[in-house]
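ok so i was messing around last nite and threw this chain in just to see what happens. nothing serious, just curious
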Amino acid sequence: MTDLASLAAPIALVAAVVLAVLVAVLWRRSSALAARFDAITRGETGQSLEAVLDAHIDKVYTVAREVDTLAGRTATLEAAERKALARVGLVRFNPFEDTGGNQSFVLALLDADGDGVVLTSLHTRQATRLYAKPVRAGKSDASLSAEEVEALGIALGR
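result:
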């Protein structure tokens, strides 16, 4: 047993030296690998990959905020567009025999929901008169002449 105890110290010393050499080799390889990784991951401007990715992430967040802003503006414009003049119908006619040409007219001006106005201009030799009748959902509470019904039908695509 004493022989075994006397051999343990030199064996432990040899094992420690071998382990120290292995640690040094692994340290050197790790350093070389880290240097190669740094060289590979440099951006165009010499930034690290981490800096390049951070810049891209910042850009993505900026674009996302801009998209949200544009989505809000688009919704506002779409809501306003529904009330814009979208449908027009025009009918020219001659209501009186003593006037020449079709100088009288009916003009229907409606939004996308069919709300708006029907304007009628009656032209005679003595005067021109203009009448306006409101329209809601493609219908008027006021009675409409044949020409007004025709202009409203044109505006509504009937």
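not much to say yet. DSSP finds three helices and four strands in the chain.
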